Every structure is written in structure tokens, then in C-alpha cells.
Amino acid sequence: MTDTEPASFSAEEYFATQPPPPTLDHDINGVREFVARQAQEGRKVVLVTVRRSSKFINIRGGLIKRTQRAEALLCRWSSMWTRGATSAEYFLKAGYAVIFMHRQFSLQPFSRHYSHSTNPFLDFLEIEPSTDGTSSPPRICVTHEMRQDLLEVLTAYKSVHAAETLHTMTFVTVNDYLWLLRAVTQELSLLGKKSMYYLAAAVSDFFLPRQKMSEHKIQSGKGSLHIEMDQVPKILKPMVTEWTKGEGFIVSFKLETDGDLLIPKARAALDRYGHQVVIGNDLHRRKFEVVFVSRKLLPPLPPDAEPEPVPEQDLEDPVSTTFVETWIRIPVPSSNPVTNQVKEIEEGIITELVKRHDRWIDEAR
Ligand code: PAZ
């Protein structure tokens, strides 16, 4: 470790000082081809970012050193990371092409239904011995109860595969994520208003810059380890103004454990970054309740019209004249697994976003 002071980077300084991942060019060529094909077919394209987070600082293999792809993760909470994969499926269903940029080992669209920990795939299969007494091998079948469920998922999966509307990309470190995000955004921005950015990744707040990584393995025998991490740069502002040139429909998420903070923090983010929607979710209620926070759209005034006077109560609370909140709720899931709901809040989120994105495209015409 060096003795350099902790820093807070601007996005520009970050990209000027941190090295790009070695596979960046290769990955971006794939995105370029994908976007060009979707543009030809007239599809809207959404970038969905997903990043599993953990409460722990994870010093990989006990090493933080320059020569390795080592990362220190520091996040505030722990997630099931289902939102991105589930949302991607609903976007595909709504006719979008999806770039699914996820952290290694996050759940994926379609296969998420059969996660090895919550719904192990092998439990749905049975072995049917050959009945004709010959040497033909036994057959593997899906259990009767799971057949309909699997058929639906498999049909959707195969049709997306055939239409080539899902492009998946993997990253590991925060550094990989930031470089990929910028490069993918720049490619996607060529679609102008037809592009959407759905930033569901819970990105670490702190990272260890390459310059502060130790050259050699850190020796554990020396007692406690002191690490000073730097702040991950805020990239939404350059994303809105430079990378997409104000043309992309950008949706970010705000996660809080204190529900009272959701709306003020979402409004502050909209004010600061100038994007289109912040979806607020309370950590413990995120599966059945979210709030869309956006700026109020004022109808255009005819050239000679006098502006409407602002109602008195709004003058006392100027903020409420600027922002509007829309809640999306589904019934609270039952704890009884038999009557457990199959409805997913992401269906409502995507329906609302598609409506808003279409309006945004129409307004540009
Ligand atoms: O996938 P999941 O349901 O466990 O969690 C979804 C979520 C809370 C990660 C997402 O909705 C979100 O808020 N992402 C951004 C988190 C942040 O503010 O860093």
C-alpha cells in the first residue's frame, strides 16, 4: 500500500488514470454488431446493468496487488440480485432488444427460474428406465408438475435465442464495470431516443485505485490491515450530458433502508444528474413496492399564452411543483409457499417504463 491521500475522482480523471480491462475492445465489437443489427430491424434497445453486492470487503485470495485482477468490494447490504434478470425478461417480452451487463455469477434471464440454490434444476428431472428390455439407454424426463412451467420458460428462451435479441456481457471489478458502461453507452447512444439505460446495478461506493495496490502479496503475519479506499466516481452526470448527449432515456435506482429518505434522495439525484426517472425502493419492500420519481412534464404553452399562476400551497413547497411520484405495488407475497404469488413487480415496472419511453420518443418527433 502507498501513503497517497484518499481521493475522489471525477469520471474524466478516473478514465485517465485507471487502466481499461484487456477485453474491452473485443467486448465492444460484439456490442457494436448487436446494436447495428437491432437498428436495422427498428428495435428499441435497453441496457440492463446488474451487480450483485455484498456487505463484505472481499480481498481476493488475500491479495491486493497490482499484478493481479484483485478487487475490494464494499457495499452496504446484500441482495438476491434478481431485479436485473427479471426485468430483462419483461423488456424482451415487450419487444426490446436487451444488452444484459451483469457481474460474474449474477442470475441470468430465463435460467434465473432454476437457480441452483432456490429451485435446483436436477430436482425436476427423473430417470425413466428403458421398458423394452433392450440395451437402449434410460430416458431423462421432466417431472409432471414442472412440465408446464419449464415449457413456458423454455419457449420464451428459445424464441429470444432465435431472434438474437439478447446480448450478455460479464464484468468482475468496479473498474471493468465503469469502462464497459462508458463504452457500451457510447455505442448504444447511436440509436438516440430509441435507447434506454436501466441501471439496476448496486455499484460499490469505494474502490482501490491501481496506483494504491501493493506490488506484492500482503503478508498476513503483520497484524491488522489498514486499507484506505477512494470514492467511485459519479458517472450519471457525464452519462446524461456527454456519453448519450441528452438523448438516452436513463433510469437509475435508489435503494434505502429508511423509507422516509427515498423520495427526497430520488429528487436530489434527478436534480443533480438531470436524467429521466429514479426508481426508489426500500430494501425490505423492494419485491412488492417501488416508487417512480420524475420531473413533472408541463404541457407546452401556446406562444401568446400567459403562464398559469402557481397555486398558493405549491409556492410553500416549491419542490412538489417540480417532481411527480408514481407508486407501483403488488400484493405482499405470502409466506406460505403453496399460495405464494407468481406475480413479479418487475412486470409493472417495465410496463410503466415502456409507456414513458414511447412518450419520450414521440415527443422528439
Ligand atoms: O435484485 P434484488 O431484488 O435483490 O435487488 C434489486 C436492487 C435493490 C439492487 C435494485 O432495485 C436497486 O435498487 N439497485 C441500485 C442499488 C443502489 O442504490 O446502489
UniProtKB/TrEMBL annotation:
Q: Please list the residue ranges annotated as the DNA/pantothenate metabolism flavoprotein C-terminal domain.
A: 166-286
Q: InterPro entries, alphabetically?
A: CoaB-like_sf, DNA/pantothenate-metab_flavo_C
Show the segment(s) annotated as Disordered: 1-22
GO biological process, alphabetically ordered? coenzyme A biosynthetic process
Q: Name one GO molecular function term.
A: catalytic activity
Instruction: Give the record's family classification.
Output: Belongs to the PPC synthetase family.
Note the PANTHER family from the entry.
Answer: CORNICHON-RELATED
| Protein's UniProt name | DNA/pantothenate metabolism flavoprotein C-terminal domain-containing protein
